Every structure is written in structure tokens, then in C-alpha cells.
Amino acid sequence: MAYRLLIDGKLVDGASTLDVIDPATGAVFETCARADEAQLEQAIAAAKRAFPAWAALGHEKRRDYLNQLADAMQGRYDEFCKLLTREQGKPLAQSQFEVGGAIAALRYFGEQDLPLETIRETEDGKILEQRTPLGVVAAITPWNFPVILLMMKLAPALSVGNTMVAKPAPSTPLTTALFGELAAEILPPGVLNVIVDANDLGGKITAHSDIAKVSFTGSTGTGKRVMESAAGTLKRLTLELGGNDAAIILDDVDAKEVAPKVFQAAMVNAGQVCLAAKRVYAPRSMYDAICEELAKLAREAVVDDGLNQGAEIGPLQNKQQYEKVLEIIEEAKAQGKVIAGGAALDREGYFIAPTVVRDLPDSARLVREEQFGPAIPVLVYDTIEEVIERANDSEYGLGGTIWTNDADRGLQVALQVQSGTVWVNKHLDMPFDVPFGGAKQSGIGREQGIDGMKEFTQAKIINVANKIAA
Ligand code: ADP
Questions:
Q1: Spatial contact of 239 and 443, defined as CB atoms under 8 Å apart
Q2: pTM of the model
Q3: Where is the active site (predicted)?
Q4: Does residue 199 line the site of ligand 1, with CB under 6 A?
Q5: CA nearest to 355, candidates 270, 467, 234, 450
Q6: Fold exhibited by the domain 5-241+442-462
Q7: 169 CA to centre of ligand 1 in angstroms
Q8: What single string gives the DSSP state of each residue in 353-389?
């Protein structure tokens, strides 16, 4: 078995196996070890045993370990990129970006420290805040960005002294298993454990009394289940959930210039991005022009197996998502006008033609729900107040973009958008030192930045009087 679990420093076969499908063909191309509950228990116990020594090791030594992991990943960069495209479907260039980002994240978060802070110091004494690791952290990751999302959890969590049980999504377990193989050679036993399931162990992880925190990225529905089952042990939670981000185009732009940016924001990773543009709002004066430009881009986009040179949009990652997106598109056909795409490609694999739909009511599923696929509704608006209200009329609040030649005007709109991040004239710019997270039902907590690192620790206040009071 090439892809194994990592438990207590050893690569082990699973109690059973899991077939992994190449979404570009729809056929099984690899198998991976699959854990049972007993193996999950072993992994959690190993992480618990490893915690005291890892926490006591000190930041610099942990940073050195993370740098070694980054070096090892760099050494197998091509293998990671190809495997990521194979299991996830994204074009190779996007895999390269993701794997490169993961390596950089290991180095960046390894470098950051959370030193003892002095809140106040007087001649009578001082008040300090110490940040201590939590214990065993579970990283539960989804299938859209299996590598970078793992590393956004693993790198800060380990850097500040936690140990970890990582569980990838069952349809994209291989890159996480490959990372486990590297970690087996580098990390002390138990510091990182990799468990692969078939969507059956997540609940056990989130309810387990020896896990101190769950850092979860996935759908809002599953996030709610995580929160529910974590309640019994009052676990710390970071939840990065779904979004339905609005792209608001202001009336001062050039349609030809802005359309490719908005198209890319909607179609990157075949739209399977929590922060993808999922609803486009265009001013009435430019509505036809923007619809036409987006439709043209959709018709011209190269949709192909991500391993093939020139592929711009790959397949959907799994059959369930593919069927869901096709269903949403079918419903949109009845309510609006499809001006590009609108169907699956006539080939094997989970390919859907990039789809642009205009003239939909705000109540359409493609507008209200998170489609998570290469299909975008273009909606018309008349006033800024109206478009802000419609953009905010959502249970989600993850990201959003504003497109304008007047950055100050863009800022004024951005100030009124209810979400965790708003970009003006750019998208997906997410430096590691900038916190990221959701408003409303898009999540709880932050990742990245010092805010994100702090979520892998607890604050302890030490309040010292220099002398025992008389
Ligand atoms: P999707 O619904 O798009 O398949 P999910 O949000 O369900 O994605 O999956 C994200 C991650 O959550 C995956 O690793 C999945 O195995 C895991 N998961 C699924 N159900 C649960 C659960 N009840 N508790 C914890 N994790 C879960």
C-alpha cells in the first residue's frame, strides 16, 4: 500500500482501504489506507503522549522541524503537484501555486512566536500574558484545497506547541498521506498523525475528550454538526465555512477590462473555492456588456484534465458535487437565460462547461445558495444602496469583491459589506500575516496572522505583586 496512515510515528496500513477517483476520468486511480475507530483512538493517544515533550521543546526547535518538513516537501514538489491535480482535478499551475504556498506556510508560521507579553508593569508588580498550547488539535480539511488548507492549520498549530491528528476529506486523502510519509521521517512520533476515513470518523474526532481543539474547513452544514458534537467537551473551534460572495461592479469601469478579473474570481478551481465570486452584480448601464464579456470568456475557456497543458478549468472534484451543480444549473434554466455553458461536457469525468446565467430573480438557487462550481449568475442593479442591501441579504458573509476605477468609492462600498474579507480590484490576495475568516454563518474564528496563531493557544494571565502586601 503506497498511501498509508501515520500513527505514532509509523506508517501503517488501514483497517481497510479507500478507492480514490481521478475526477478527470471518473475512474479509480489509487487506493489509500482507511482507518477504523481503533486506529483513530491510537492516533489520538499518540498525539496526547507526544504533547508534553513537543510543547516543552521550545519554539526554535519546533521551527527547525517545520523547516525540515518544508525542505522535504520542496524535494518532492513535482510529485505533490501532480498528485494534487490527479486527486483534486485542478490545473497543474494551480496545484503548483497551492503546494508552493504550503511550503511557504510551513516556513512562515514556523518562524512566528507568541512570546510572553507584559500587559502592565508598575513599581509594585506586573501583569503578564502567557500563550500556552492547547494539547491535541484536530485538523479536518475539505477536498477543494487539500494541501494548503492542511498547512494553514498544521504549521501554526505545531509551531506554538500543539500536536495533531489530521483528517483529509475521503475523496482527496493522498496528498495528506504523502505529507504523512515525510513527517514520519522527520517529526518525533505522535506529533502529527494522519487518519483517513470515509466520512465516518469526523464525528468521533469532534466529540473526543482528548482533543482540545478542532480546526475545521468545510461546508456550513457540516460545520454546524462539528459545533454540536464539540459542545460536550467545550472544545475550542475554528470554523471556516461556506460563502456566497458578491462581486459588485461599479459603473465607472471598462467592461472588457473588468470581466476577465471577475471571471477568474468565479472560475478559479472550477468555482470550488469558499471565497470564489458566486454572484456578480452589474449596473444597469453596463449589464448587457458585462454579461456578454463574461459569456465570451466562458465559451473560450479551456476546460480539460488538469494535467494537460493549457487546461484552465478542470473537472468538479467529485460526483456528488458535479450532480449538485448540474441540478442548480437546470433550475436556473427555468428562471433565467443561460448565455454560456449550461451542461456537462460530453466526455468522461466530472466536467461542466463554464456557465453564465443572466436575468435570474434573487430567489433563484444559483443566487441564494453556494453553488461551488463553474456557474455564475449575473444580476442587474440600479443603485449602490440597493446592491449593498442585496449583497448583504445572505446568511453567509465570507468574502466579496468590488471593482471600480475609483478606489475611494470602492472603499466606501467595502465598508458596508458584511463579510470577513472584502477586496477592492483584486481577489484572493491572502498574505500569511493577514487574518482570514467569516462573518455570519461563514464561520467562527480566524486563521492566519497572529490572530489565527493565537487560536491554537490559550491565554494565561500571570499577575505578580513584588511583595506580599502588609
Ligand atoms: P462536503 O459537504 O462539501 O463534502 P464537508 O464539509 O462535509 O464537505 O467535509 C469537510 C470535511 O469534514 C471532510 O474532511 C469530511 O470528512 C468531514 N466531515 C464530514 N462529516 C463530519 C462530521 N459530522 N464531523 C466532523 N467532520 C466531518
A1: yes
A2: 0.97
A3: 240
A4: yes
A5: 270
A6: Aldehyde Dehydrogenase; Chain A, domain 1 (3.40.605)
A7: 7
A8: --EEEES--TTSHHHHS---SSEEEEEEES-HHHHHH
Instruction: Please write the tens of the pLDDT for every residue from 157-216.
Output: 999 999 999 999 999 999 999 999 999 999 999 999 999 999 999 999 999 999 999 999
Q: Is the CB of 226 under 6 A from ligand 1?
A: yes
- Pull the grid cell for residue 339: 448565455
> What count of residues does the chain have?
470
Ligand 1 center to 297 CA (angstroms):
33
* Fold of the 245-424 domain: Aldehyde Dehydrogenase; Chain A, domain 2 (3.40.309)
> pLDDT digit string (tens) for 96-151?
999 999 999 999 999 999 999 999 999 999 999 999 999 999 999 999 999 999 99
- Probe ligand 1: pick from 222, 323, 441, 442, max atoms within 8 Å of CB? 222
Please pick, among 60, 98, 185, 240, the residue that the annotation labels catalytic: 240
Query: Which of ligand 1's atoms lies nearest the C-alpha of 219?
Result: 6
Ligand 1 atom with the smallest distance to the CA of 167 is 14
Answer yes or no: is pLDDT of 453 > 80.
yes
Q: Kindly list the domain boundaries of the chain, sorted by start residue.
A: 5-241+442-462, 245-424
Q: Whose CA is nearest to atom 16 of ligand 1?
A: 199
Instruction: Tell me if 169 CB under 6 Å of ligand 1.
Output: yes
CA 160 to chain centre: 21
- C-alpha 399/C-alpha 414 separation (Å) is 10
Checking if the pLDDT of 417 tops 80, the result is yes
Whether 312 is a known active-site residue: answer no
Q: How many other CB atoms are found less than 10 A from the CB of residue 254?
A: 11
